Amino acid sequence: MGAARSAVSEKSGPMNAFRALMQPHRIVMLALLLGAVIWCAVALRWDWIPEYAPLALEGLWRTIWILVVTCVLGFLLAIPLGLAQAIGPWYLSAPARIFCTVIRGTPLLLQIWLLYYGLGSLFPQIPWIRSSELWPYLRQAWPYAVLALTLSYAGYEGEVMRGAFGSVNKGQLEAANAFGMPRFTMFRRIWLPQAIRNVLPTLGGETILQLKATPLVATITVVEIYAVSSRVRSDTFIVYEPLILLAVFYMIIAGIIALLFRRFEDRVPG
Amino acid sequence: MEFFFETLGLAESAKLLSLSPPGWGGNLLRGLANSMQIAFGAFGFGLLIGLFGAYGKLYGGVVLRDLLAVYTTVIRAVPELVLILILYYVGTDLINKISEVMGYGRVEISGVVAGIWVLGVVQGAYATEVLRGAIQAVSPGQIEAARAYGMPPFMLMRRVTIPAMMSFATPGLANLWLIATKDTALLAIVGFSELTLETRQAAASTRAYFTFFLAAGALYLIVTLCSGAVFARIEKWARRGQPSLKRAGR
Predict the structure, then answer these.
(1) Domain limits at A7?
(2) Chain B contact for A117 (CB, 8 A cutoff)
(3) Does A54 touch chain B (CB under 8 A)?
(4) Structural domain tally of chain A?
(5) What is the mean pLDDT of residues B131-150?
């Protein structure tokens, strides 16, 4: 047990990681895993892949696109939400707090359906919306998906940013103040960067959670990677193979997100 | 009361939400009861998995620890929706295979049991991590002292580890409970009639989407806020006798 624990606590370089992997029981487990993969490749049905590959690529692209857009927009919205809760007067902080509580207290699926079916049934009754330039977009599903996921990310991140703004060392802000730095410059150069640095690990986790929320938009007819797997299932009655492949895809994307955030954390001076 | 609704222009909504059959309020409350039943079951099942998982990760052999690491990593990286589908099909297939081998033929699996099984396995992965962290935060001297007195492992867990880790585990478990209540909404997609699906059916047949979705949102929010208050009390109870966090943090 002592040896195993020291192997875990060693610094994780590529050489050490390799050595940790080469313990006897891990070699046996890797061999079993390899066997399982080979069995999956041989015994299960994969002949549907060529037919659905273009659609799957399109779906994959749409998943990533939705993830990136909603995370960026949601984070931009979270900054004022966090700021309002951290230092805002009551007439700004109270609505921000209520928004975050409501978003965090109700299921995302309900929010998506409320926006899509609710707004979607309301808009056609209003003449000037139907005659406006935006109407061709508002008739599609993806604006509602993007809106719902953005608001959800903003709600969760607003709470995170509230803590982050509060955690920045007061002395630094006072020093900037003493130098006569304008308030906005102080916010841009000192407060925001330090707040973001403090919550980078949390943000990484939240981004993976956001990735795991994206398949919900398939329920409002947005064709992303999850919807493609559902279509394969209903077209060919093959149940497990598309789901296994889908899970592997999500694990790869989650791994890439974790890796990106770790590199980002390493580059930021701590 | 009716005058009050008239003046606010909510008479229509109040009629739609009334509890007796022309209104859909009864359906929503039945859905809520189903959701809560599954959330309780899944949370309990998840805690059970989490307790064994945490003990396995801390005190188990090398193979068990690696297997548990794979379990928690995979479950936490794959969307709940995908896991729900996989576990749902695997669970029903396995039970049907077993019952066919035993000569009973195909069995119909109740939605509640399937929901508890599926969400419980997902919750178990998160609970394992929460409880592992909490057990590690208990000062090892206390556990060693109990061992030195020759306390059997199960009694040690019941009398020392669990009471001492409660204060560390409660915030994480409160979070998990909230995730459990919200994840029940996902079962709507496999066709289980919990609150979200009942809401959607009511909304689709009356075309009053905003009324019903907002009402369901309010129900979820009430559950969330009430359980927040309950967990705050539990945490206060679990922390009894410990120095206040506020002063310790400064």
Answers:
(1) 1-43
(2) yes
(3) no
(4) 2
(5) 90
